[in-house]
DNA sequence: TCTTCAATTGAACATATGTTCATATGTTAA
DNA sequence: TTAACATATGAACATATGTTCAATTGAAGA
């Protein structure tokens, strides 16, 4: 199985150099998690909505055209990954972007897509 | 179904303002696609490897500890999304990062994770 | 042309993920 | 404390996604 690789065209110096500069698995996994949470259009739309101002669950549901339940599920995921944070005010729970880095990431990819 | 929302706590002004500044669906979808393609640890590792230097399929496979076939599948996805590009040299095919924006995105998220 | 070998592709499988419906929290006002 | 209501949660379902094995393509040298 692994023997196949040995007779292939591997440039061992390059490979070793690349392996040395490769971030730890944990770092890669955390980067991937951030990208993953932003990779669903529904969630991305929520984050884009919150880029402007604080909104409650039911406002977000109205913006996204989805049920409160669906939005709540997505918000929980976003909360777990520290993408958004919330505060309760009476019966409502208001959400905002938690992290400036996320705002920057979103803005950058938005610029990229818009050329 | 939709009637439920009407009797809830929706702030119509906020909602309308947010809807106006919301990017088009196509833009959101393209942003999501970029994030999605970077959200798989296997693919992210490939991109991180290519951040340093040009590598052939079989070098990448060695770096990532996966089969050439698996890497080839991932590279095709990365190619389709214009994340990487390739050039043939003899029997080998060498890959590099296609887009500076991608490099910037990766670097930013790497910094973020590293505090 | 034939052989070797790096890369690609196809198809099938297992797993992960988002969504939905139903139910449960928890807060406010009466 | 009760009723009303905004939000959250659980479980089940359908779909999407990554991986694997097998077969194919395409290039280089004998």
Short description:
2 copies of one chain form a homodimer. Chain A has 115 residues and is an alpha+beta fold. Chain A has 7 helices and 3 strands.
Question: Can you walk through the features of this model?
Answer:
The structure is a homodimer of 115-residue chains. By secondary structure, chain A is of the alpha+beta class. The first copy, chain A, has one domain (14-113): Orthogonal Bundle (Arc Repressor Mutant, subunit A), CATH 1.10.10.10. Helices cover 64% and strands 12% of the residues of chain A. The first copy, chain A, is built from seven helices and three strands. In chain A, strands 1-3-2 form a three-stranded antiparallel β-sheet. In chain A, helix 5 (57-64) crosses helix 6. The first copy, chain A, is elongated and about 60 Å long. Residues 1-6 of chain A have low confidence and may be disordered. The interface between A and B is large, with 55 and 55 residues.
